[in-house]
Amino acid sequence: MRVPKAVSYELGGSQPMMTLILGGARSGKSRFAQSLCCAGEEVVFVATAREEDEEMRRRIAMHRESRPARWLTIEEPLDLPSRIRAALPCATTILIDCLTIWLSNLMWAERDWTPDEIEQSALSQIDQLTQIGAGRELIVVSNEVGLSLVPETEVGRRFRDLQGLVNQWCAAKADRVFLMVAGIAVPIKPAPEAA
Fold it and tell me: Are strands 43-47 and 93-97 parallel, antiparallel or unpaired?
């Protein structure tokens, strides 16, 4: 698939920061997130997807091919804080792609828990991630799932609602937030200055 080159933005400069990148499916989130990683940086890429069917295997292969081979890749579907903590000595930049897949994995693994328990587990891990990422560039990719149809099933609606809450939680902690629309990174936070 041919896609246009992403617009480039500079990372935080002298002070490391957290960047959240939101968008719909195939909006350019991953490509933009990767473009934020500086060439000389030690990047730890955290992939949350599982290879459970042929379509997902193809998607994962495409994503692997798009990343520089020198990046350290951690494939972790559930326990992001522990795996990232173990890789910290290697990292100046941590890129997590993506929270949406991670959250669906978490909801499945914790399906016998109450919705409140799952919410607390998810938000606790987000808090841990932001603490672990302090002092490094932390780039987090997540889907904006609340802009489309209302899911037909109760579990689908719970997922949509929790994903929205996780995104809000991350956005509140992030220094910068971008919304990807048709491959274009629209800055949301801090708010763009008026022209």
Answer: parallel
**Opening angle at CA 145, ends 176 and 172, nearest 5:** 30
Given 27, 30, 33, 63, which residue is catalytic? 63
Domains identified in the chain and CATH numbers? 24-188 (3.40.50.300)
Residue whose structure tokens are 């990047």? 43
Indicate the pTM of the whole model. 0.88
pLDDT digits (tens, 9 = 90+) for 41-90: 899 999 998 888 898 889 888 888 888 889 999 999 999 999 999 988 88
> Order of strands across the sheet with 93-97?
72-75, 43-47, 93-97, 137-143, 18-23, 176-181, 184-189
pLDDT tens digits, residue range 113-149?
999 999 999 999 999 999 998 889 999 999 999 887 8
CB within 8 A of 40, min separation 6: which ones?
A: none
Verify whether residue 167 is a known catalytic residue. Answer: no
Q: What's the Cα-to-Cα distance from 189 to each of 78, 156, 175, rounded to whole Å?
A: 28, 28, 7
24 close to 143: Cβ distance less than 8 angstroms: yes
